[in-house]
Amino acid sequence: MTHLHDEDHDRLRSRARRECDGRWPHWSRSYCGDHAVIVGWRERVGVDVETLDRPIETTWSLHDELFRTTMMTAEERELAPPLDLVAARDMALSLWCSKEALAKALGTPLDWEPTRLRGPALWPSRDVGRWRATYLGPDVLHFRALAWVVYDITQ
Prior knowledge:
Strand content: 25-35%
Radius of gyration: 15 Å
Number of helices: 5
Mean pLDDT: 92
Helix content: 25-40%
Distance between the termini: 20 Å
Strand order of the largest sheet: 4-7-6-5
Order of helices and strands: EHEEEHHHEEHE
Structural class: alpha+beta
């Protein structure tokens, strides 16, 4: 995993694309403000990063019924733990981020409906079949953000 920071967004994207060289056959990039996270892997891989400081709508919470019905599967609604207000907001962001990473790893991120894609953030053991998921928090990223990496272990 590579983390890049650059206040010039065009230069950031150019630097991130250059990172995706021949070291790995599969790459995924995600951008958040003036940050980029890039991941390479031997099989399909997806990454998504979201800042914890960005203002988001109040509906971004596990407590909000609109979020629950438009972003979560029925199973996720059952599995979601009871959380305080801040944790419910952060968990909603984490769940969304994990679904984005999984959709990228599957290869067709625009084709997945959130209510039909179970996000790795609520996978009991962070693995399902051939897929593995890794959470990266602010302590790993070194800025106020979270990211999920989802990768295929087939080989």
